[in-house]
Amino acid sequence: MRDFLYCLNTSTIRPTPLLEKVHIAGQLGYDAIEPWNDEITDYLRAGGTLKDLRRIIEDEGLKVVSVIALFGWTEEEPAKYAAALDECRRRMDQAVRLGSPYIVASPPSGVVDLGFAARRYADLLRLGREIGVRPSMEFLGFVEGVHTLDSARIIADGSGDRDATVVADVFHMMRGGGSIDDLLTIPGDRMAIFHINDLPDSPPPREQTDADRVMLGEGIADLPRVIENLRSIDYRGPISLELFNEGLWILDPSVVCRVGLEQMRKLVEGE
Question: pTM of the prediction?
């Protein structure tokens, strides 16, 4: 039995319309997709419905395993925080109505007290439980505060909530100054989803941006070891192809997704 779900994070072919992304993923043989709230909202504004979108996704044989993302949940000013929570509720509702078990809780761009963030994350988890989806704590290698897997784990553990999980990512582990062996510090059942990608050899990882990510196998990340580490911690969830490379965005999206899936299969199944 294969131990991971092959997932397409829709940022990988970002300019492509959402329904076309769904069709491409389904026809190529992906198991799941990971859409962004903004593109779901654009689809709704154009006259679509969440009911229809879910049906189309399921008709393509796909699951929605996560939706991206929640922002502003660490705001300290009461009015801004209230507005952020209202938006979080709207985004969580989208995730629930598409059948997603998780939604990504993205960290603030600046420095944040990890204890404070843990308390706010606990509030987010309680809200998610009311609505029916589990927010998962993300770290971003290029932000000042929550830029390592350890910092995300501190927030998750500090929440004291049994539903607390983290999102990990090859790019962000290396961009944040860590390594892919950081995966060995967390049990697999505490990870909601894993984002897979590769990094070029230049500029140095600590200077890279999201747009520098490259296709699997074209960079310097030890991706076979990534898979080995995921298996070592007994992670058995989705591995989601997440790229933001504008050079890939101008290519045929079907080709980009096909190559990405082939590379994931090669890593996981040795094909």
Answer: 0.97
CA 34 to chain CA centroid, nearest Å: 7
In this structure, the number of other CB atoms found within 10 A of the CB of residue 231 comes to 14
Cis-peptide, bond into residue 107, ω within 30° of zero: no
Sheet containing 102-105, strands listed edge to edge, beginning at the edge strand earlier in sequence: 63-64, 32-34, 5-9, 238-241, 191-196, 166-169, 134-138, 102-105, 67-70
- The tens-digit pLDDT sequence of the chain (271 residues) is 579 999 999 999 999 999 999 999 999 999 999 999 999 999 999 999 999 999 999 999 999 999 999 999 999 999 999 999 999 999 999 999 999 999 999 999 999 999 999 999 999 999 999 999 999 999 999 999 999 999 999 999 999 999 999 999 999 999 999 999 999 999 999 999 999 999 999 999 999 999 999 999 999 999 999 999 999 999 999 999 999 999 999 999 999 999 999 999 999 998 6
Residue pair 31/238 in contact by the 8 Å Cβ criterion? yes
Dist. CA 218–CA 109, nearest whole Å: 29
DSSP letter string, 175-243? HTT--GGGGGGS-GGGEEEEEE-B--SSS-GGG--GGG-B-TTSSS--HHHHHHHHHHTT--SEEEE--
Domains and CATH numbers, the chain: 5-269 (3.20.20.150)
The Cα 137–Cα 129 span in angstroms is 15
The tokens for 233 are 């911690």
